[in-house]
Specification:
Elements (H helix, E strand, L loop, with lengths): L3 H13 L7 H12 L3 E5 L2 E4 H17 L7 E5 L4 H13 L2 E4 L6 H11 L3 E5 L18 E5 L10 E4 L17 E7 L7 E6 H15 L6 E4 L6 H13 L2 E4 L8 H8 L3 E3 L4 H6 L14 E3 L5 H11 L2 E3 L1 E2 L8 E2 L17 E6 L12 E7 L13 H7 L5 E9 L5 E6 L3 E4 L2 E4 H9 L4 E10 L5 E9 L7 H8 L11 E4 L13 H7 L6 E2 L9
Parallel strand pairs: 1-11, 3-4, 3-5, 5-6, 6-7, 10-11, 10-12, 12-13, 13-14, 24-25
Antiparallel strand pairs: 1-2, 8-9, 15-16, 17-18, 18-19, 19-20, 21-22, 23-24, 25-26
Length: 537
């Protein structure tokens, strides 16, 4: 299908930035020359103009260099949506260093793995998350310096600790190329540890181009997001604003009661939602704030089709579906006037997509199989998994990225999501590794075996359920095992449902048949700790 308006915009932005300009540093300098004192990014009462963002990038790069950071070095950050996050993103890009944003809920073995795997020596820490470091083994980490953001707090790592510098001497920009790594983003593994996705500068240029094209953005648009900057979606929003010469507002976090008021305050024209956020907003009593805004459109992947019409009728905001992943780009989607309810869309310009069997052979339209994708443009996708060559080869085998999503391609070229091939769980917009949750459960001395799997929630996504076998001669209350998990897992990964069993369904070679557990689901014997909101830990 030819997507005329979106395709024209895409060609325009590709032509506006030469190949060597497809880095964050080059984009920032070029757009500062064009937009100068116009606002680029706002957090609460703090706004950076395009000119100021260039100056901040140069000073932050100087501070990083003074701390011993060089091109290619990794800098980890645990921080909520604050201006310091963007400052560090710009500073690392200006210096040629690699930013490693970490989920602010990460702790225990998962956080240990991400810090160790990345090899970061500098950690930038918002001190309200200092407790996340409590169970780390410092001997297995390279961290020797911690910059803090916010009020002072005890930090449980032996390192040089100082407030994040803000007044260092500026540096000139490093000669960064589109293929150079800009970010490592950890995405939950499906049968193993979290993998660090190596994101080159060019990938985020293409994120901006493809998403802005499908949203049909223009230079007068104001973007607003409540999504966290440690994920691709919110980072992509920054690049969209930079690309179009627009302005992006970041909220601290998603609040159902405050969502529409935030749109009004920011004067936003476009916003960003995920899966369960739309039914949560629809569950509220209607009020005037739902219409007292300028927003015309929301990028809303994963929202069930049954909610689209009601949401638009109540709020005036149309919802745009599509498909993307941290490793890839906005590869499947259609502009708002070409959406089909229940479908993600067709392959967008610059991408190929196929549905294949377990041997990578294409299957006929209407047949479910795994979605595989590839890009025409250089560095539009991630370049692999950091320090995990075997996982890189597995995911990119036969020169296609294997998504782990089970889909159907319709005869008209539109793709429809069915379920996940891989053993992953998605809850409140977060990918959860069943393996990582199982490892925490198995570390309890009373647990002999455990299987973690998704069950459907009352909203639009999954809840985490664990089937557990206890060791002979032991006893354990479900609430005790949940309490054991809480300091060792991100709040969203702690199981909601827990059931003690005497045997787990398994194949002849002993592999747990999780599909049988999923089919069995919640029973009368299942412990339910109830819906879990964001932890304040």
């Amino acid at each position: 299908m030819k997507q005329t308006g979106a395709s024209t915009l895409r060609r325009h932005w590709i032509g506006a930035f030469s190949p060597e300009e497809r880095t964050l540093t080059a984009m920032l300098q070029r757009q500062a020359g064009r937009n100068g004192r116009a606002p680029l990014v706002t957090f609460g009462d703090t706004t950076l103009t395009y000119d100021a963002a260039c100056a901040v990038a140069a000073r932050c790069a100087g501070a990083l260099h003074a701390a011993g950071v060089r091109a290619g070095n990794r800098v980890a950050i645990i921080c909520s949506n604050r201006i310091e996050f963007i400052e560090l993103l710009l500073g690392c890009a200006w210096l040629g260093a690699v930013l490693v944003p970490l989920n602010t809920a990460s702790r225990g073995p998962q956080l240990q793995h991400m810090l160790s795997n990345s090899g970061a020596r500098l950690l930038v820490l918002e001190t309200s998350f200092a407790d996340n470091l409590a169970l780390l083994d410092p001997a297995a980490l390279a961290i020797d310096t911690i910059w803090t953001i916010g009020a002072s707090a005890p930090v449980a790592l032996p390192a040089t600790i100082a407030p994040m510098p803000r007044d260092a001497a500026p540096l000139p920009p490093a000669p960064v190329r589109p293929g150079d790594m800009a970010l490592i983003l950890y995405t939950s593994g499906t049968t193993g540890l979290s993998k660090g996705v190596c994101c080159p500068h060019g990938q985020y240029f293409w994120w901006g181009v493809n998403t802005a094209s499908l949203l049909e953005l223009h230079d007068g648009d104001v973007l607003s997001t409540t999504l966290p900057l440690f994920h691709t979606n919110a980072l992509n929003t920054f690049y969209q604003a930079l690309l179009i010469g627009g302005h992006v507002h970041y909220e601290t976090r998603f609040s159902a009661s405050g969502f529409f008021d935030a749109l009004t305050r920011s004067n936003a024209t476009v916003t960003f939602l995920l899966g369960a956020m739309v039914p949560i907003l629809l569950s509220r009593t209607p009020d005037a704030a739902e219409r007292n805004h300028r927003a015309r459109l929301a990028l809303a992947p994963g929202v069930p089709a049954r909610f689209h019409g009601d949401f638009t009728a109540r709020t005036g905001i149309r919802l745009l579906e599509g498909w993307a992943s941290t490793e890839t780009n906005f590869a499947i989607g259609a502009p708002i006037d070409h959406q089909q309810p229940g479908c993600m869309g067709p392959a967008f310009d610059g991408f190929d997509a196929r549905v294949v069997d377990d041997q990578d052979n294409p299957v006929p339209d209407g047949t479910a199989g795994e979605l595989i994708v590839r890009a025409d443009d250089p560095f539009a996708f991630a370049t692999g998994y950091f320090g995990a060559d075997d996982k890189t080869v597995e995911a990119w085998r036969n020169l296609w990225f294997h998504t782990g999503d089970r889909v159907i391609r319709q005869p008209d070229g539109y793709f429809r999501f069915v379920d996940r091939v891989k053993d992953a769980i998605r809850r409140r917009g977060e990918n959860i590794s069943s393996y990582e949750v199982e490892q925490v459960l198995l570390s309890h001395p009373a647990v002999a075996n455990a299987a973690v799997f998704p069950v459907r929630s009352e909203l639009a996504e999954d809840e985490v359920m664990a089937a557990v076998i206890l060791r002979d001669g032991t006893s354990l209350a479900p609430a005790e095992l949940i309490a054991y998990c809480e300091p060792r897992l991100a709040y969203f990964a702690v199981p909601r449902y827990l059931e003690f069993m005497t045997v787990l369904p398994a194949t002849e070679n002993g592999k747990v048949q999780k599909f049988k557990l999923r089919e069995r689901g919640v029973t009368a014997a299942t412990f339910d700790r109830g819906p879990v909101s964001r932890s304040k830990r």
